[in-house]
């Protein structure tokens, strides 16, 4: 498995932002994490992306437990393995699109303008390469962020509400990019409360108050491959079998959006 979360919790005082979650994600899977605002999605992403550590439990990437790595090894994992895409774009306002992409190269290895331009070309923005973020639409800015996330060829893309600030047309463009990445074998984990975005993923899990409350598959082939490789359903609490015995195993949700829409969303 590319990613293994083993009974992870994030606890702030009395609040369990993520509560004893076990989840495995194989290389190449496209997973959506859905849930209402405050359900722990960003907290979970931050722990997967080595930006935060769990209060309990462990996170492993490619079989390496993150808690066993020192600061420089963790920095290497962040730089080499993970590409991050956020709802807010976090572009440097006084740098052009291509320079923003080159900042990511700088932190990774060496800057290479030709490669940065190619990355912008991949997201359809070659002719906007020398524009400042303020001269780009929201959709274009998000595509710069995706180019930036892709520059180091990460195995894992973590995207937190990547289409949250986009109109429908730009949402489609971003989803098409994710679809291409998925076809090329990139593992994608996307946090979203948009049904359309979630439905593009192979698999969806739903959180509520940090607890897993649902899991469903949108891609039967991916499900069969996952199960054949020994993949288990995600679960909260003790063991999956124990949870089922106790009658609180997550149930498949027929319509995640409908469920998500009943909560108050960000
Ligand atoms: N640094 C923090 N300190 C205290 N509480 C936090 C912190 N970060 C997140 N929380 C709380 O954890 C819960 C989950 O937050 P978050 O993961 O951001 O939810 P989501 O991304 O699903 O909206 C919320 O109740 C939030 O207020
Ligand atoms: Mg969030």
Automatic annotation (TrEMBL):
Entry-linked InterPro entries: AAA+_ATPase, ABC_transporter-like_ATP-bd, ABC_transporter-like_CS, ABC_transpr_LolD-like, MacB-like_ATP-bd, P-loop_NTPase
Question: What protein am I looking at?
Answer: ABC transporter ATP-binding protein
List residues of the ABC transporter domain. Answer: 3-234
What's any one GO cellular component for it? plasma membrane
The reply on keyword Calcium is no
MF terms in GO: ATP binding; ATP hydrolysis activity; transmembrane transporter activity
Q: Which domain of life is it from?
A: Bacteria
Checking Pfam families in the record gives: ABC_tran (PF00005)
Q: Where is this region: Disordered?
A: 228-266
Any keyword ATP-binding? yes
**What CDD domains does the annotation carry?**
ABC_MJ0796_LolCDE_FtsE
The UniProt keywords, alphabetically, are: ATP-binding, Nucleotide-binding, Transport
């Amino acid at each position: 498995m590319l990613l293994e979360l083993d009974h992870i919790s994030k606890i702030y005082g009395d609040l369990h932002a993520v509560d004893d979650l076990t989840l495995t994600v194989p290389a190449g899977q496209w997973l959506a994490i859905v849930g209402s605002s405050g359900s722990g999605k960003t907290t979970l992403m931050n722990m997967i992306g080595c930006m935060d550590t769990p209060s309990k439990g462990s996170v492993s990437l490619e079989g390496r437990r993150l808690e066993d790595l020192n600061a420089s090894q963790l920095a290497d994992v962040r730089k080499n393995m993970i590409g991050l895409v956020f709802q807010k774009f976090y572009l440097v306002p006084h740098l052009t699109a291509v320079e923003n992409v080159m900042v990511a190269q700088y932190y990774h290895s060496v800057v290479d303008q030709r490669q940065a331009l190619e990355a912008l070309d991949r997201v359809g923005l070659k002719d906007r390469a020398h524009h400042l973020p303020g001269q780009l639409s929201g959709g274009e800015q998000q595509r710069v962020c995706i180019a930036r996330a892709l520059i180091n060829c990460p195995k894992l893309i973590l995207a937190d509400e990547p289409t949250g600030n986009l109109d429908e047309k730009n949402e489609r463009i971003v989803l098409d990019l994710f679809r291409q990445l998925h076809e090329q074998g990139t593992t994608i984990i996307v946090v979203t409360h948009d049904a359309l975005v979630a439905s593009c993923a192979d698999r969806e899990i739903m959180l509520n108050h940090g607890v897993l409350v649902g899991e469903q598959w949108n891609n039967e082939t991916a499900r069969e491959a996952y199960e054949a490789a020994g993949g288990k359903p995600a679960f909260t609490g003790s063991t999956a079998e124990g949870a089922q015995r106790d009658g609180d195993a997550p149930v498949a949700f027929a319509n995640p959006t409908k469920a998500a829409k009943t909560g108050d969303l960000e």
